[in-house]
Amino acid sequence: MNERVQEKLKILADAAKYDVSCASSGSDRKNKAGGMGNSTSMGICHSYTEDGRCVSLLKVLLTNYCIYDCAYCVSRKSNDIKRAAFTVEEVVDLTMSFYKRNYIEGLFLSSGIFKNADYTMERLVRIAKDLRTLHNFNGYIHLKLIPGASDELVQQAGLYADRLSANLELPSEASLKIIAPEKSYDQVYLPMNYLKEAIVEYRREKKQNRHTPIFAPAGQSTQMVIGASPETDLHILKLSSELYQNQNLKRVYYSGYIPVSNDTRLPTLVAPPLVRENRLYQADWLIRFYGFKYNEIVDDRNPHLDEQYDPKLVYALRNMHLFPVTLQTAPYEMILRVPGIGVKSAQKIVAARRYHSLHLDLLKKLRVAVNRAKYFINVPGNHLLKQYYPEMIRKELAGENPTDHQPQQLMLFA
Amino acid sequence: MVVQKTTAVDEVQLVYDGTYEGLLTVVFECYRLKLTPIEIQVQGAPAKDLFANRQPLTITTDKTSAERVAAGITKYGGRQTASELYQVFLSENGQREMIVYQYLRLLFEKQKAINAHYHIDVVLQVSQLVKQMGREIHRMHAFVRFQELADGLYFAPIEPDIDVLPLAHQHFVKRYAAMRWCIYDIKRNYGLLYEGGPVQTVVLDMDFSGNTMQLPAEVLSANELAYQQLWKDYFKSTNITERKNLKLHLRHVPSRYWKYLTEKW
After folding, report:
1. Cβ of B235 and A52 within 8 Å?
2. Å between A358 CA and nearest CA of chain B
3. Which pLDDT tens digit goes with each residue over A116-175?
4. Which of A348, A346, A347 is nearest to A338 (CA)?
5. Per-residue pLDDT reduced to its tens digit, B165-183
6. Which residues make Cβ contacts (< 8 Å) with residue A320, sequence separation at least 6?
7. I need a surface site. Which of A133, A321, B111, B240 has the fewest CB within 10 A?
8. Is B48 on the interface with A (CB under 8 A)?
9. Does B3 touch chain A (CB under 8 A)?
């Protein structure tokens, strides 16, 4: 261990941090005899940075040398920054040493592109393979799919990694063409589609032969930068829905654009669009866990998510005719749509009402956010008799929820 | 003058040995002798004033009785209930014995799982305690930080809010099956040592009074301090200063854990 590794780690962790995915979930790889580690399906965040993001994986680039010049990227060719490259052994040693100390759940490895896509991808796969085969490592591995990588390498990556991801980078191909002219959606969709088919194939084989080697058990994810291009939230959520449905993605990550260059192709932002990013994640959650369709959250008349209130509340206010929901008898799916009731509360409500009639006091004891829910539910003990209009609720709830925000300064496009 | 509270003859204060088997025996004896306990206490624990003038009844732990109660729990409540009640027992809640007792009365009366009867106080209490325990166990899985000693043992001092090592350690047994390690609960002064076989309980005579739990260099392996430094560097580099949000940071990493976290030293 020497100062050179320390220097490299600083540079290559700093360059990797804009990839927001840190999930170590979705895989339940078991440890083997004499082996090191395992994965838990719920994942573990071992720490949190001062920006409040989870630290679960050692997230580094293999190198930040890159032949591309994508305007949004800190590692772009034309950027005058320190460059470094890890050796395979260095990444393996850092992963194993951090893992043994319980600092991390595993490795998230990405890279700048040197020489060409396959040359880079091959090295990423080598590291995963060494960890699995030479070091008997059974912790979590997330590998980046380098755009344009060949099917053979993607196939191999799936054999060693738990999760793989190919980043769309921007929410539309038109924007990608402007900001990252050397990249195309095709380059991203090719490995993504190949992997989708390979995973389907693996699941099918697994049913017939349980000894089929594990293949990408935690599936694949993608990421797009938000606020660097003019797409609406409607456009973004429609795209995400399609990715979940057609590409079977496990996660779509939204990364609020942080100015890393003065390139004129990019907007000048006063601050990263963190509120918008937060709202997109909330909407994404509604789509994945709450049974919402994207066009119930945003539509042509409301193409952007509300900045001040969360999308579930906004949905309820726009659809007052569906409320109040009678909790004692309503279907689970409808209870899930009540603002202030989350998945766990909804499950508890459905379980509890089989044995006893519900009451507002019981909801409080079950830690339902009653202050928020009370406008939308019909339950004994809830004495909101007067007719509420959406605007009145908006006013009363202002500042009630920690995720409510005051309207922010709009971003300026240069 | 203290007013003597009138109680029926069968309402008693019970004392047991502090083990889970002991508590289950207490439940068994309550059924057998038709007792209604108003308080169940560990032997030697300071008596509460109100009952100081009454002689408590000591229940002797009996394995067979305890097993019969345990079998009943699984029969009617399933494995989940069995696990939840054991968690309540470990929760260090002041009323834990009475909670388990009352819950079991109800379970044996209904003769089926009562997990979702949230309208009954004791059921709600159990679900809340189990949630607390789960959170603390998960924190231990996250916040344990091993330091490699000169002899190759990986050592982690830690101070959980609740006594969760008995439940948290299985995770480490699976994950670090090929390592020798010890996780030490400083507050309760015992640790679990794993060297390949079954986990052993150890009590160490060590001074953990420092501001951080970093062990002195002379007991550490040659590379340990270098790896600690690398981890600290990584933690700093992976932060995005433009997104600084200390409130969120503190919510996830409460400051009482900092002295155990390498990245916070």
Report:
1. no
2. 8
3. 999 999 999 999 999 999 999 999 999 999 999 999 999 999 999 999 999 999 999 999
4. A346
5. 999 999 999 999 999 999 9
6. A390
7. A321
8. no
9. no
Question: The complex's ipTM?
Answer: 0.89
**CA separation, residue A4 to residues A87, A91, A192 (Å):** 11, 13, 35
CB proximity B235 to A under 8 Å? yes
Query: B124 — contact with chain A (CB < 8 Å)?
Result: yes
For residue A360, give the chain B residue with the closest CA: B119
Percent of chain A with pLDDT over 70: 95
How far CA A356 is from CA of A366, A383, B44, B110, B123, in Å, comes to 14, 20, 41, 14, 13
CB contact under 8 A, A52 and B248: yes
- Residue A28 · residue A41 · CB < 8 Å: yes
Contact (Cβ atoms closer than 8 angstroms) between residue B228 and residue B214: yes
Domain ranges of chain A: 3-290, 311-397
pLDDT value at A403 more than 80: no
**Whether the predicted pLDDT of A318 surpasses 80:** yes
Distance (Å, rounded) from C-alpha A329 to C-alpha B118? 17
Mean pLDDT of B25-43: 93
Residue A404's pLDDT is 59
CA distance B260 to chain A (A): 12
Inter-chain residue contact B239 with A49, CB threshold 8 Å: yes
Identify any residues that bridge with A322 across adjacent strands, giving them in sequence order. Answer: none
Question: Which residue, B88, B87, B68, B65, is CA-closest to B76?
Answer: B68
B211 vs A: CB within 8 A = no
Q: How far apart are CA A268 and CA A307, in angstroms?
A: 20
Q: A329-376: per-residue pLDDT in tens?
A: 999 999 999 999 999 999 999 999 999 999 999 999 999 999 999 999
Q: Return all residues near B57 (Cβ < 8 A) that are at least 6 apart.
A: B12, B13, B14, B15, B35
HSE toward the beta carbon, residue B203, CA cutoff 13 A: 3
Calculate how close chain A gets to B37, using CA atoms only, in Å. Answer: 27
Q: Do B177 and A18 touch (CB under 8 A)?
A: no
Check residue B184 and report its DSSP letter: E
Q: Which of A158, A148, A91 is nearest to A119 (CA)?
A: A148
Q: Distance, in angstroms, between A378 CA and closest chain B CA?
A: 18
Mean of the pLDDT values across residues A31-51? 89
The region of weakest confidence among A94-103, A196-205, B10-19 is B10-19
List the single residue in A6, A54, A258 with the smallest CB-CB distance to B242: A258
CB A258 within 8 A of CB A18: yes
- Cβ contact B142–A16 (<8 Å): no
